[in-house]
Specification:
Elements: H1 2-10, H2 13-73, H3 76-110, H4 113-135
Helix pairs in contact: 1-2
Protein name: Charged multivesicular body protein 2b
Pfam families: Snf7
InterPro entries: Snf7_fam
Length: 155
């Protein structure tokens, strides 16, 4: 633009026209370059999106195949039967454990150990009671009234 002004001041009209055409072509080329750059960026983004979609489709395909394999191997009726068998056996084990515990409790309760252990507890408590009663002092008495203390002002 500066050169066009220079040529116009010097009166060279032909040079002004040529420089003006070059300026217009340069501006158009600049706009085309921006447009192409924008399209290239858009294509790059589109390529990344398509690549991500391909990876996601592959992962979904692999997941579907895995789920099919699991569903083929896991017969719902068989799984239900297995769970019912487990529950039944678990209940049997619980009942057996309860029976064993009850039997052991009966054996230990009938052996007379409880009476003997109660005698030992009573003996220990008697011994402690004797020791404690020998060490216990008279209970503290709380005075009914407090002695008066004269204040420093009264002296």
């Amino acid at each position: 633009e500066m050169e066009i002004k220079k040529m116009a001041k010097s009166g060279n009209r032909e040079a002004c026209k040529i420089l003006a055409k070059q300026l217009v072509q340069l501006r158009k080329q600049k706009n085309r370059t921006y447009a192409v750059s924008s399209k290239v960026t858009s294509m790059s983004t589109q390529t990344k999106v398509m690549n991500s979609q391909m990876k996601m489709a592959g992962a979904m395909s692999a997941t579907a195949k895995t789920m099919q394999a699991v569903n083929k191997k896991m017969d719902p009726q068989k799984t239900l039967q297995t769970m019912q068998d487990f529950q039944k056996e678990n209940m049997k084990m619980g009942m057996t454990e309860d029976m064993i515990n009850d039997t052991l409790d009966e054996i230990f309760d009938e052996s007379g150990d409880e009476e003997e252990s109660q005698d030992i507890v009573n003996q220990v408590l008697d011994e402690i009671g004797i020791e404690i009663s020998g060490k216990v002092r008279e209970p503290y008495t709380i005075p009914q009234s407090l002695p008066s203390i004269s204040s420093p002002l009264e002296r």
